[in-house]
Amino acid sequence: MKKSVLSVVALTALSSLGLAACGNQASGSNLSNGAKTKSLNWMEKGNLRTLDPSTIVESTSAETLANADQGLLVNPKSNELDSGVAKSYKVSKDGKTYTFKLRHSKWSNGDPVTAKDFVYGFQRSADPKTASQDSYILDHVANYSAVSKGKTPVSSLGVSSPDDYTFVVHLSKPQTYFKYLTAGSVMYPQNKKVVEKYGKGYGAKSSNQVYNGPYTIEGWNGTNDSWHLKKNVNYWDAKNVKLNKVNFHVVKDGQTGMNEYQTGMLDQLSLNTKQQVNNYNNSPELHKLNTADSDYVELNQQKVPAFKNLKLRQALSYALDRNQLVNDVLGDGSKPLKSFVAGGLASYKGNDFSNVAQVKNSSEYNLNKAKELWKQGLKEVGKSNLDFKLTADDSDTAKSVGEYMQSQWEKLPGLKVTNVSLPSQQRVSRLLSQNFDMCLTGWNPGIPDPSATLDTRESTNSMNFSKWKNNKFDALMNDAENTHSNDEGRRWDDMVKAGKLADKDVSAVNLYQNARPTLLKTNVHGLRYNSTGDSWDFAKAYVSDK
């Protein structure tokens, strides 16, 4: 599947761990004659975790690296693909062989970017020694399964370089959305010389990396909360990159961010509260952006056996009033999730997936029903009370959501919830290590296909942090990705059934589809926003005189 990412709530995504309407540019995309090259000051909600393209799983790192590295194709706006390092490509009649012709381009250290760099990048991501959480995105590449399990050498992976500027990918079976996957970091080229030079420190700080995209990354030492993009003079299209710098600064406190925006220290601000949104409702600086993020709570069945009880999971879901959550707590345009897959992500014959996969009443608020199910569930697990920790980011938004859920859940007799707020990097680390009871998180699917979200519920998927398992769900997703991969209608039906099953069985506690109300100075132009990918693309951005 795709390089989906944990939003930053969230997470993001993930971490949630959206400038005009979905996918549109923030302002005019044509550079005016009077525009001048300047820097841009940008807010981030979470810290960088890594700049290793094989091991990125959260949104801040993914968005940053997407502006400094470039894959075969790029996905700058929702549902659109542009040429990247590949200037052209062709697909075989059986849909299983992709041949990419590469342009002549360079790494930031002056080395040429060749097909061998793509071969190595794919192989390194698939290599179990790399421990890539997202390596499953390569699952349709020939021999991936055996390589990822260490049964065959990485050299047997279905990728090759007939010459320096021809890269070939052999799939084990057709994959209709493969072209979108090539824009993701798991499929980025990697400079073997640099990887071997830094070893375990590769990508652990900005200087331990080289870049082939519009910008390089500088100023990140592995732990600090500020860094910047600098124009990459070796980028193949450098002449059309207008910004010299994009300065990133992590801001977790909403009022601090507002002060910095209003005093000109920031050119952009992600709003955190209903009041902030209301204060700017009539301002041309406010952009109410859509996302394809699903925000939810993971219930760790591996650490907390009680979560294996369906009635307890159902009770936790019924105890939450999602309309109150999005309207009174968030107030930022977020919407209750109709299904685990966010609305607007994908449709078939005019029908949105989230509508057809919706399970009636699965996310309704019914406190009496919640209390009854809770009572029954406690009896079935032999408990009179339960005590859980809810882990979330330490942002204003995540804290508010966590406090709301705590207040609602503690209406269930015998339940005590303790909130644990952590920097996003630490929260993601706890997710990855299964060191949590309940975790407020989210998911950005990365590509416009329901499987990009549903895959995270498969029992063997590394992003299934709840360790929920349903054999029928796994079978349906296997049919969608294999048996019916070339039959659009049957594949869609498989995924609809799987989506309904995941919600009926409360694979996670669905919350809301995250919105992204954003303030942007009116002299910032050319930004491109992707609701399903790495969000912000700065390649064509510029700042004009006010």
Task: Supply database-style keywords.
546 residues, alpha+beta, Dipeptide-binding Protein, domain 3, 6-stranded mixed beta sheet, 4-stranded mixed beta sheet
Question: If classified by CATH, what would the architecture of the domain at 294-513 be?
Answer: Roll
What is the CATH superfamily label of the domain at 294-513?
A: Dipeptide-binding Protein, Domain 3
Strand content: 15-25%
The secondary structure category is alpha+beta
Query: Major beta sheet, specifics?
Result: 6 strands, mixed
Report strand order across the widest sheet: 16-22-15-21-19-20
Distance between the termini: 43 Å
Please state the average pLDDT score: 90
Level-1 CATH class name of the domain at 294-513? Alpha Beta
**CATH topology group of the domain at 294-513:** Dipeptide-binding Protein, domain 3
Helix content: 25-40%
Per the principal axes of the C-alpha atoms, what is the gross shape?
Answer: globular
Number of contiguous helices: 16
Could you list the spans in which at least 5 consecutive residues all have pLDDT below 50?
A: 1-35
Question: Roughly how many Å is the radius of gyration?
Answer: 23 Å
Q: Got a strand count?
A: 27
What does this protein look like?
- With 546 residues, the chain is of the alpha+beta class.
- The strands form nine sheets. It has a six-stranded mixed β-sheet. It has a four-stranded mixed β-sheet with strand order 1-12-11-10, with helices on one face.
- Helix 8 runs antiparallel to helix 11 and helix 15 (471-483) packs antiparallel against helix 16 (488-504).
- The relative contact order is 0.20.
